[in-house]
Specification:
Blueprint: E1 2-6, E2 12-18, E3 21-26, E4 29-35, E5 41-45, H1 53-57, H2 71-81, E6 118-126, H3 157-180, E7 186-189, H4 191-196, H5 198-206, E8 210-213, H6 226-244, E9 250-251, H7 261-268, E10 273-274, E11 284-288, E12 291-295, H8 316-333, E13 340-346, H9 347-350, H10 356-367, E14 372-374, H11 377-387
Parallel strand pairs: 6-7, 6-13, 6-14, 7-8, 9-10, 10-12
Antiparallel strand pairs: 1-2, 2-3, 3-4, 4-5, 11-12
Length: about 400
């Protein structure tokens, strides 16, 4: 279905419907919104800043599924476009496509399953065997651990041994702690790591954990070409599918992504969510090419990486106390608004004997509170879509080619 409405004096507007998405385009700046069961709309992709005046002139009957006048117009303005009124300055202000407001003061009225106040996401990063190593044929050695020391030109057996601790001893302790408290987690796993330790994937699946993708190797994608990224995605998906029995539906790149990463995940068609964001305590939606993607923000503060030099954690109790403080605040806020909490773990870090008690203390505390949902990240993403009235997500055909 398609139609046209008269827009702002210097703009033209057209709209069209595909599947359950309504697309509104203003002078080539597109907004994708979707009707929910309550006949309100939620933004899936934020448009570039545009004046609000164009909405005043759009005929109320332009969109058959809902009316873009009155309260609905206000909803679009304040909830979805999230663009503050234009201000006048005596100097040029550069453009931005960043969203500084998020859901603002009017978050979606979504409740977690069974009325839970907090969705608690435990993320176990599996990187051992995927760290850069000359011994694995990589161009350099990984040098980041508890003692940062670069070894160049030859294989770094010391660093390799540090990482091996994670699979040899750390995983067993983390696995036992999760099982003791009935906590289902997401293993954020590098494809090459699981290819070297397929037994770990089998144990995780047997325990009911999700396995999402942390890339092929443990490396940044920020400077990769698009062809390189396509290969990385294809390799990671294949390795996780072969070792776990199912392809991953979530993705999280080590630190900085490229400008193309999220678009490529959407083009691939097999991803429900992306965790490459740190900007909120609740999920949000993005879209491209008429396809949507849930963004599940991750966290670096409630993360055992802070045991590394200068990170602030020394004793296991440091980790527990900090995570409990974050939990208490989000749990309280969860009485009125949807909240999720991410806790990041690494096999070789929190799995050390002097630190594991910090994780056990936190899990025991969280499990003692009513209304806490220990959730896999795929479960959180599905629940968010359900709360927005979206159709159940299913993998879609790739829009472009991904070759390992």
């Amino acid at each position: 279905m398609a139609g046209h409405g008269s827009g702002h004096s210097s703009s033209s507007c057209r709209w069209w419907i595909t599947s359950n998405l309504c697309h509104v385009e203003l002078s080539s700046k597109r907004i994708d919104v979707v009707p929910t069961a309550k006949r309100s709309v939620w933004c899936l992709a934020r448009a570039a800043p545009v004046p609000f005046g164009w909405l005043d002139d759009m005929p109320g009957q332009s969109l058959p599924s809902f009316d873009l006048s009155g309260p609905c117009r206000e909803t679009l303005q304040h909830l979805f476009l999230k663009v503050p009124p234009l201000i006048k300055l005596s100097f040029p202000l550069g453009p931005t496509d960043r969203d500084f407001r998020g859901h603002g003061n009017t978050p979606p009225a979504i409740r977690w399953p069974k009325g839970a106040r907090l969705a608690l996401s435990i993320v176990v990063n599996v990187e051992e065997g995927a760290e850069l190593s000359l011994g694995a044929g990589d161009a350099s050695n990984e040098f980041i651990y508890e003692a940062n020391e670069k070894v160049e030109g030859v294989r770094d057996l010391c660093m390799e041994s540090h990482y091996e601790y994670g699979t040899r001893r750390g995983w067993a302790r983390i696995r036992a702690a999760l099982k003791a408290h009935g906590a289902h987690a997401t293993l954020n796993a590098c494809g090459r790591a699981l290819a070297h330790s397929p037994w770990l994937a089998e144990e995780a699946v047997a325990d009911g954990h999700e396995i999402s993708s942390h890339g092929w190797r443990w490396e940044r994608q920020v400077h990769m070409s698009e062809d390189e990224e396509r290969s990385v995605i294809a390799r990671a998906v294949e390795a996780i599918r072969v070792t776990s029995g199912s392809p991953p539906v979530g993705w999280h790149t080590r630190s900085a992504t490229s400008l193309s990463t999220r678009r490529l995940l959407i083009e691939h068609g097999g991803f429900l969510y992306d965790s490459n964001a740190y900007n909120d305590d609740m999920p949000h939606m993005v879209s491209d090419e008429g396809r949507d993607l849930v963004v599940l923000p991750y966290a670096f503060d409630t993360n055992d990486m802070r045991f590394q030099p200068g990170g602030g954690f020394v004793q296991g109790d440091d980790f527990a106390r900090y995570c409990i403080a974050c939990f208490d605040r989000l749990y309280a806020e969860g009485a009125d608004e949807p909240r999720m909490m991410s806790v990041g773990l690494h096999l070789r870090i929190i799995g050390r004997p002097a630190r594991i008690a910090g994780l056990e203390t936190f899990l025991a505390y969280a499990a003692s509170k009513p209304g806490v949902w220990f959730a896999r990240r795929d479960e959180i993403a599905h629940a968010w879509r359900d709360g927005l009235g979206l159709a159940r997500w299913q993998p879609r055909p790739a829009l472009s080619e991904f070759v390992a």
